[in-house]
Design brief:
By secondary structure, the chain is mostly helical. Helices cover 74% and strands 3% of the residues. The protein folds into two domains: 54 residues, Methane Monooxygenase Hydroxylase, Chain G, domain 1 (Up-down Bundle), CATH 1.20.58.1000; 33 residues. A two-stranded antiparallel ribbon has the order 1-2.
Length: 120
């Protein structure tokens, strides 16, 4: 990784670690759930930013060298690696969607939501 990217990534990562520690304290202090969610979303955004920097560095260094190189196998490997990253990102993003959770019943049982209106 180029030094300029490494420095930016590490600085952002240290910030993320501090933010995550603050979220842990919020949960321990039983703070208001929507406020905790806002903070976890901010961390997700910061991680997305770190991933973008790492990808940008990779495109300017390793991937460019491989694609411009004379070895066809190396070019194909570089392309396959990038495609794999985007496939993984799509899967992770899809899994971020809220999944329906079981809703507790007053008697202590569990009731599954019947309609999407109950989930939202």
């Amino acid at each position: 990784m180029r030094d300029d990217y490494r420095s930016r990534v590490l600085n952002r990562w240290k910030s993320i670690q501090g933010h995550a520690e603050g979220i842990r304290k919020m949960m321990e202090n039983d703070e208001y759930c929507p406020e905790i969610i806002k903070q976890t979303l901010a961390v997700q955004g910061a991680i997305d930013s770190v991933n973008s920097l790492i990808l940008e560095n990779h495109l300017h260094t390793c991937a460019t060298s491989a694609i411009r190189g004379d070895d066809p196998a190396e070019r194909e490997q570089a392309i396959d690696e990038l495609l794999d990253v985007f496939r993984t990102a799509r899967h992770v993003t899809w899994n971020r969607n809220l999944q329906p959770l079981a809703m507790p019943q007053p008697q202590g049982g569990v009731q599954e939501p019947d309609t999407e209106d109950e989930i939202a």
